[in-house]
Hints:
Helix content is 61%, strand content 8%.
Amino acid sequence: MAVTSHVPIKSRDGVSTLADRWPLLGQRRPLVVYLCAIVALDVAAIIVFATSTVFEWRDLLMFGALMGCGAVCIEATRRLGMPAGVSRDLLSAWWLPVALLLPPVYALFAPIVLQVLLQVRVRATVLYRRVFSSAAIGLAGCTASAVFHQFVSDPWILSQGGGLPIMMAVASAVLFSLLNIALIAIAAHTANPDSTWREVLWDRESLLLDIVELCLGVTVSVGCGLNLALLLLALPPVVLLQRSLLHAQLQAAARTDAKTGLLNAAAWQREADTEIVRARRTGDTLALLIIDIDHFKRVNDAHGHLVGDQVLVGVASTLRSQLRDYDVVGRFGGEEFVVLLPGADIDEARRVAERLRVRIGHMAVPVDATLIRVTISIGVALMSVHGDDLIDLLAAADLALYRAKELGRDRVCIPAVQPPPPALPNDPAA
């Protein structure tokens, strides 16, 4: 991560580049600066607090016990498996007690231990993400710990159930969560400036999970203050909750595309079929868009697949931000996306398609000293005009997309509706 040069190791005709071998270097420069600054601040905090802390056996024993519980939860996760896209866990149940009951330096070390275990035992991911996660959690935990110890001189009085210590523990836990979310949200928004703050901050489900984690962390802290052996009673329900959470995330991950977070092809088709059946029953209008990034292969050839992935993520984010919550958007594979617009007539579908084309045309992905811009071509089909089922609509929209590419790309096309054949003279219907 200390390497600053962006010069490729091999030419694009070769296989490897410096950005391929060091993925951090393929990110936007402001993001690289931000990540390095957070990690450097975390290292500085470790040095400062480690040199000013007296390490006692009781504290080391509790730290080891809490990390051992975290290791058990991680092993339970490993047995279920954790594919890419599954990011939530309940490890706060173990490092929040570290922050509340032990000196702040332990809050800096706890995420390092658990993130190393996740990397080694569960799923190896890009190293800089693990390092940044450890630093962000460590800084948030250290700050919460320092604030709590500032107002509560003896953290072990938590076990007495006094109102003020419990309130301070809850407030410190909330502070930990807010700081951690803020540090990660800034990184996410820096990586993709086109995304909205709403997308990188809380949604209803994330807020609920954060509340559950805070409650668990404070409860485990109180139990540890009573008797360290009570961790044996706290561990099974935490493991069970974590397995339930992981199962829900695995179900969600099975429906989404790992790179863009949109619905994958199979999940999109299921939801699209449901919407089409509903539209038939109610008589509502419905439109389908097929979107293709123009000359996407040139992006991969010129800048590498990591940059190509950034373009895909940017396009997906723009699509989400410009569509309604109930519009069905997915990635069909490669550089192709599909959108179902319930209740849209041909005029609205055309307006939406043009808005998407213009917004994505204005999108820019920074790479080194250049900005990568892409355009899209869109084919539009309308239910009951170009087809009555999903296969017919996809075929019509695909035909319109092909026409848009023939006409020079960066445009929206709608298939022409063939007039009905003229009636024969002896046709009873004439």
